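As a warm-up, study this chain.
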Amino acid sequence: MPEEDLARVIEQDHAALKAFMGGDPEPKKRLYSRGNDATLANPLGPAVRGWEAISRRLDEASATLRGGDSLDFERVSAVSSADLAYVIDIERYHGVNVEGAEEPREFSLRVTTIFRREAEGWMIVHRHADPITIRRDAQTVLQH
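Now compare it with the structure written out below.
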């Protein structure tokens, strides 16, 4: 039963991302832990910690990246224990209206999502997303 519960939450998370790209961050927010240790590291800014900061960042990101023809998920790995689980996915976004761009764009994100079993059930306690989906030269990690 715990694996089915986790699989259901992962499906809800994928559906929430589609709503998110449609400009509605609320389904994604409902999946987040309200714990002070919850974190979000998205590609639009530095990592944030705590529910209030996560909520604001999700609102900002949903307003910045909107629409899209489709969203595909490629599972890289998934591991679970009694109270913690993580999934690593490549998320592929198609036809997204990015704030400041003249026409819709396609992009992919490497995403790690960590879930924790809480009183409410499985909740997201951490999400890290970045655009590194292919091998890169080591020099690209140096800040200029």
